[in-house]
Amino acid sequence: MTRAAAGGRIDRSRVLRFRFDGRDLTGHPGDTLASALLAAGVRRVATSVRFGRPRGIFSAGPEEPNAIVQIEEPFPEPMLTATTVELYDGLVARGLSGRGRLADRPDPARYDAVHAHCDVLVVGAGPAGLSAARAAAADGARVIVADEQPEPGGVLLGLPGGVPPGSLAPPGAVPSGSLGLSGALPLVSGESAGPPGAEWAAATAAELSRLPEVRVLPRTTVVGHYDGNHLVAVERRTAHLGAAAPAWMARERVWRIRARRVVLATGAHERPIAFAGNDLPGVMLAGAARTYANRYAVLPGRRAVVFTTDDAAYAAALDLAGAGVRILAVADARPGPNGRWRERVREHGIEVLAGGVVAEARGTGEVTSVVTGDGREFEADLLLVSGGWNPVVHLFCQVGGTVRFDDGLQAFVPDTPPPAVEVAGAARGLTSLHDCLADGAAAGTRAAEALGGGGSRAGTGRPGTGRDRQAGGGSPERRGGVRRAADGAPQANGHALWLVPADDCSTHFVDLQRDVTVADIRRATGAGLRSVEHVKRHTTAGTAHDQGKTSGTLVPAIVAGELGVHVREVGVTSFRPPYTPVSFAALAGRDRGALHDPVRVTPMHGWHVERGAVFENAGQWKRPRYYPREGEDMAAAVLRECRAVRGGAGAMDVSTLGKIEVRGPDAAGFLDRLYTNLMGTLRPGSIRYGVMCRADGMVFDDGTVIRLAEDRFLATTTTGNAAAVLDWMEEWLQTEWPSLRVYCTSVTEQWATVALAGPAARDVLSGLAPRLAADAADFPFMTWRDTEVAGMPARVCRISFSGELAYEINVGAWHGPALWSAVLDTGRVTPYGTEAMHVLRAEKGYPIIGQDTDGTVTPADLGMEWMISKKKADFVGRRSLTRADTVRRDRRHLVGLLPEDPGLLIPEGTQLVEHERLPAPPVRSLGHVTSSYLGAGLGRTFALALVSGGRDRIGDRIFAVLDGGQAPVAVASPVLYDPEGARRDG
Amino acid sequence: MLLIPCPWCGPRDETEFHYGGQAHVAYPADPGALTDEEWARYLFFRDNPEGAFAERWSHAAGCRRWFNAVRDTATNRIHAVYRPGEPRPVTG
Ligand SMILES: [Zn+2]
Asked: What NCBIfam families does the entry give (chain B) (predicted)?
């Protein structure tokens, strides 16, 4: 065990049992899986993905590249970082090698979403974030603070200082302690001038939570920062409770927050240095080791060497030494280490190697010794590394902020901020606690004041005011140069050391998760790559699920070194959401299963379900595809339904067809501009089939238009296109012809419609509608009548989509089930579904827009020249029908196909060629099959197809390309059944 | 996600809107009088500037009305919104 006897922010009164890689271990509340593993002496946690090398715990946060684990119990979850998994009782996990496994069963947890608005969103509850939140709230702003940790404090949680008995610190007090980022001397335990940092953070967060307009969200990671200050955060509510998580509570919630101003107080990540063996278990970021010692009371080793390029690691060395780790030496790569720090560690008997480096970490399976640049070998089990600190600029860059390379800090820092975004504290390169506190407060005040004072109660919220340009850049320190820490001591600048040169750089790891080494980068630049984006893609550095949080500056710096340019000329790769991995379950929220997409059903749906209909989706609609009887498969059922329509009468629920009422004094003229044929000449009482084109002349939709009155039409659309057609009409009315007095209203769901088709349809209808004069002469094709059907007010249209005598009976939606039952209760009518409808219409050559067309088909291609009015001056798309491309003779025409084998059903989508035997590629395609069925009326299989110059090929023999070889087919007219139209009038 | 100020409803999430491409591309008064080239220019050619761009939006899941916006395509900032038929405002 390497747990210290006392200290840390863990609850030693409770023991949590967990299992890792088959070993039963224990930890305490307050532990992460990583801290508990270190406390248990587990050094090797995972295996690297490419080389299979042992890997340990490298960091103490979401930047972890190594310790990737699979949770097995209580519910399988892949690819989590041990450093962010809060320990719970009953946790079962194992180390991974680059790949996890998804659960083999449905996730029983619920996931939810929250939409929120606020004046100021503060990302991060470290010293800068809490100060910002407090300042903004004091100005009356509505504030949300989101922080990834279970408790507030950020970096303060890893500072020394136990929890003294007694009350919380007064909220206004300034916390003590050094962030370890600066040249300021640290105040180690016992020297505190103020309350310990974590105490201050807890008190400040508690104070904030008491305010009515402030919300503090712990365990909430902001993963995406989008345009207009729209931010997406994931709140982990129950995962840390393990099996004890209450079922009623959402496991995770996705917060979608619209903030008028954002303060990014996201802190900084320590970065590694590339040297031989820098991936061995026992090599750890210095700040992480400090956090393990202070926050978790865990000693990550017994004998340590420190390798640093700045002052930060000295504080870590002192804290670890104080906790009982023997610090053998500090190799400080700078020629002149900070003298005050040097004295401080020397007081503890620690040797400082000025200008020293670590050349190699040695060991099999873990670090057992460390070789410094001067050739000395130290027997050590821990190597603390600090290559400097990178401001966490991920969110800042996601939303369009630009970064610049700061020579003082040797890191990329925020430069030009996006509108209404402030950056505060370590996230913009500040390194002392005092500065971060002051900077956060200033940012919070600026954010609140930018809203015009009084927070949400005032201000315009308009982006782009002059203040924006000031945000995040107001401090004079920003320009680099000499920095002064809070105590006035000159602040040591970062030192540029990215790698320790060696002949063999094959174990100089840059991206630990992707196993990318300096040697790999050299190969990339050696191959001529100069862009860091190209190097990223070539080497995969930065593409693992940690997205290169620890390698993000190292890679461009090493590329720059190879190219002999300054790192600022190389720049960084793009930062893209999400900042940390997000589960699909969280993104889906409640929108899964039956709630994935809205489901639309017709009024008669219950009947269809009861009769065992097999449904198909048409957009969001559920439509009966066929109604199988006992022992029938689909083919048998469809054939029977088709025969019923051709031989007697069938009924189909066609309520899903789009219906749009077009009304107003200019309605007729308006429709004339949208349909290819004349609608203005249609008389009330009559119906006309119409086709609409896009401006490019391609068929967009079709349907019937019935004229209800001089100023009133009802246009029907295809089921899937109803919304698009209404949008199309509205677009033209609003943007091009606003002077037309026309209103369009969707009435699809106000009507229930039954298609009654077949030679017996008139008889059946007459029986149901005794007052209707149904003779062909009294009620001709393409007319409509208002009457009563089965005692219900109904509008009956004489139209046909099957070639048979047919009617569409429309009643109010409420009456739909009664009408449907009345029709079927005659005992003479067979219900049929969409599949039979498709076969029947295809036998007549009626195209389905969207199945037989694909947006490249003109009315002429469909053989519908007769639909193109010669009398109208214009309609949308007309001019395109005489373009050189649309008058080509070899355009693909809709034709019928008859396989020579009358039993062969050619799959839809099959390619058609001229060759009986396929020559060597390339082979010219003549077109493809769009519809293919066994036809009841034809008594054989047939197809519709789009064929190049198809109408000139009628009678030709061409070939369908099938898996088993070519099948000969005859090109025919698309109207294969009853071409004379003799059946239409019954 | 953009926050788009509908001139009738006020600021709303982008998901409520439908994009309509470049604004001020009027349907020609007499398409039949145009050459193939002129018609093709209307059909297929659109500007693609980096910077301020006047474009059409429809508040499809709101008031269902069309309007125009001047958006900077590089920063996504919306400088102005105005109603169909109104001239493009001068923006900075
Ligand atoms: Zn609106």
From this structure: soxD (TIGR01374)
Q: Which residues of A touch B76 (CB under 8 A)?
A: 227-228, 400
The Cα–Cα gap between A422 and A441 comes to 11
- The predicted pLDDT at position A854 comes to 94
Say whether residue A416 is in contact with chain B using an 8 A CB cutoff.
no
Q: B6 C-alpha vs ligand 1 centroid, how far in Å?
A: 5
Say how many Å lie between the CA of residue B15 and the centre of ligand 1: 12
Q: For residue A698, list its beta bridge partners.
A: none
Burial string for A374-394 (b: 16+ CB within 10 Å, else e) reads eeeebebbbbbbbbbbbbbbb
Rounded to an integer, what is the distance from CA A197 to the centroid of its chain? 37
Is the minimum CB–CB distance between B15 and chain A shorter than 8 Å? no
Q: What is the phi-psi region of residue A2: left when phi exceeds 0, alpha when psi lies from -120 to 50, beta otherwise?
A: alpha
Determine the 3-state secondary structure of A120 from DSSP: strand
Nearest beta carbon to residue B43 from set A695, A734, A874: A695
List the single residue in A736, A738, A874 with the smallest CB-CB distance to B32: A874
Q: How confident is the model at residue A483 (pLDDT cuts 50, 70, 90)?
A: very low
Helical ranges in A265-399 per DSSP H: 286-295, 312-323, 339-347, 394-398
Residue A485: pLDDT band by 50, 70, 90 thresholds?
very low
Angle at A267 between CA A266 and CA A271, to 5 degrees: 125
Residue A311 pLDDT level (bands cut at 50, 70, 90)? confident
pLDDT given for residue A492 in this prediction = 40
For the residues A665-682, what does the mean pLDDT come to? 96
Give chain B's radius of gyration (CA, Å): 14
DSSP A230: E
* pTM across the whole model: 0.88
Q: Is the confidence at residue A829, as pLDDT, over 90? A: yes
Q: Which residue of B has its CA nearest to A418?
A: B75
Cα distance between residue A447 and residue A452, in whole Å: 9
Across chain A, mean pLDDT equals 91
Q: In the predicted model, is pLDDT for residue A582 greater than 70?
A: yes
Express as a percent the part of chain A with pLDDT over 90. 86
Q: Reply yes or no on whether the pLDDT at A170 is more than 90.
A: no
Query: Per the CB < 8 Å rule, is A727 touching B18?
Result: yes
Retrieve residue A668's tokens. Answer: 């007729």
pLDDT 10s digits, A596-636: 999 999 999 999 999 999 999 999 999 999 999 999 999 99
With 0-12 / 13-18 / 19 or more C-beta atoms within 10 angstroms meaning exposed / middle / buried, residue B35 is: exposed
> H or E stretch including A255?
strand A252-264
B85 close contact with A: CB closer than 8 A = yes
Please indicate whether, in this complex, the C-beta atoms of A695 and B27 are within 8 angstroms of each other. Answer: yes
> Which residues have C-beta within 8 Å of that of residue A724, sequence separation ≥ 6?
A700, A701
Predicted pLDDT at A23: 97
User: From its phi and psi, is residue A678 left (phi > 0), alpha (psi between -120 and 50) or beta?
Assistant: beta
Q: Does the beta-carbon distance from A227 to B2 stay under 8 Å?
A: yes
Q: Which domains does chain A have, with CATH numbers?
A: 16-95 (3.10.20.440), 107-268+391-487+576-594 (3.50.50.60), 498-565 (1.10.10), 605-656+750-841 (3.30.1360.120), 658-749 (3.30.70.1400), 887-986 (2.40.30.110)
- ipTM of this predicted structure: 0.98
pLDDT tens-digit profile of A111-137?
A: 999 999 999 999 999 999 999 999 999
The per-residue DSSP string of A388-423 comes to: -EEE--HHHHHTT--EEEETTTTEEEE-SPPTTEEE
